[in-house]
Amino acid sequence: MVIKKEHILLLLLLLCCVLLFSCTSTDKKIDKHSNKNVEQENKNNKDEEELLEKGYNLPVSGSEKTEAENSCKEVMELVSDLYKNADKGTSLNIVIKSKVIRQMVKLLGNAGYQARCNEAYSNMENYKKFERFLKKSISGQKGSCIVYDVHTDGGIGRRKYIYNGKEMYVLAASASWDNNNKPVVTYISSSRIKNWRYSEKGWFCYEVCVPEYPEVSEMVDGSFLVRVKPINSKKRKYSKKYVFGLGYQGNNLLCSDWNASHIKDLDFNGMYEYLYKIKYKKKFNPEKYPDGIPKEEFEKLVMEYIPVTAGSIQKYAVFNKKKQAYLWTGLGCFNYAPSSFATSIPEVTDTRKNKDGTITLTVDAVCETVLCNEAVITHELTIKLSDNGSFTYIGNKILHNGIKEIPSYQYRINKNYKII
User: Fold this and answer.
1) Which pairing describes strands 319-320 and 156-163: parallel, antiparallel, or unpaired?
2) Confidence at 90, pLDDT banded by 50, 70, 90
3) Which of 4, 47, 269, 416 has its CA 20 to 30 Å from the CA of residue 389?
4) What is the pLDDT of residues 168-184, one digit of tens each?
């Protein structure tokens, strides 16, 4: 069979068309695949930008995660003997005694770590290194520093603060003990700190980025308040003895202006349980008084701590003359509206001896939650000491018009309460 020249040319032309179509189709597939890669990359970049903008649940590199896990376990090994020998009680939620927690903090401090706990008026071990980091960050210098927290259950928290010259971040990790007394890292997270400051009084106040509405229906508090500069032993002693037991919740001894000549606005019914705990070192048990607190018992305790007569107490407190008893009720949804200020801890920052023998304590209301303020209000509490170690509250004065900055006090029992 003889193939004509025209047929050969036709076959070559057909082959070229097939090859051309094949190449075009392949190019289209490559372009389509390439476009998908570009789109995915753009999507990933956009997601990462949004994540960085939100500032929480930031990606943690493998090396950072490994470093945090190893550090937590190393630190926990140092305090393992104290934890194993500690009294853990029988509750599922372990709470170790404060004395053991302080021993753990001290042990870590002796090993060179910046360590602390959340006990009121506690100091940070090796605080100067962390303070230098903060001051360098204020001046714009890059750096990082790690602080360890000993939790009430004996676990360890690790916070690595990182300043990159523009923004500050915190890489937080936490570790606890398993049933075999072995350390287990429970979580690791990274967040951007949206605002921060280091106060003259030595408090590191900061707020991390957290989910906000409408992403969450309830407010998430990202506020933290860390004592850096230590409180001295005298101020700690005064704080614990004279003001810690009162606080700013359920009574208004520290959050109102009053003195011996102006006591009608004090909440006598509310203050009783706090004075009871200060005197007897145990909680007041209301079940013993279903019909109210007997007149003599109530008045004797109040008059020991407040310069007031029995007649004035009956006049200004809610008193049942028929039963000769003072009413008492616990805090609840009908007589107490929760506020961030109420969670504040009173701290003595200065003392002054007066000519009449009394002592005036300058007190700051330190609030970690939401307000994140080491001095929501500052007030002066005057006390009179006795030779036998007892004391009396003489008066309180809120400085700098601070009373306008806090919620109005809500009385435990309305003074217009009618007794049938």
Assistant:
1) unpaired
2) confident
3) 269
4) 999 999 999 999 999 99
Apex CA 264: angle with CA 261 and CA 268, to 5°?
A: 115
Mean pLDDT over 86-109 rounds to 93
Mean pLDDT of the chain: 91
Preceding peptide of 407 cis, ω within 30°: no
Q: What are the respective helix, strand and coil percentages of the chain, to the nearest 5?
A: 35, 25, 40
298: pLDDT strictly greater than 60: yes
Q: Which residue has the tokens 């097939």?
A: 18
Parallel/antiparallel/unpaired status of strands 345-353 and 325-326: unpaired
**DSSP per-residue letters across 336-392:** ----TGGG-EEEEEEEEE-TTS-EEEEEEEEB-SSS-BTTS-EEEEEEEE-TTS-EE
pLDDT on residue 415: 74
Burial string for 328-344 (b: 16+ CB within 10 Å, else e) reads: beeeeeeebeebbbbbb
Query: Cα–Cα distance between 419 and 205 in angstroms, integer?
Result: 48
For residue 415, give the 3-state DSSP assignment.
coil
Phi, psi (rounded to 5 degrees) for 338: -60, 140
Q: Name beta bridge partners: 190.
A: 171
What digits encode the pLDDT tens for the residues 119-131?
Answer: 999 999 999 999 9
Residues in CB range of 388: below 8 A, 6 or more apart: none
Question: Cα(95)–Cα(101) distance, rounded to whole angstroms?
Answer: 10
Map out the domains of the chain as residue ranges. Answer: 62-230, 236-405
Q: What is the DSSP letter of 243?
A: I
pTM of the entire predicted model = 0.86
pLDDT at 378 over 90: yes
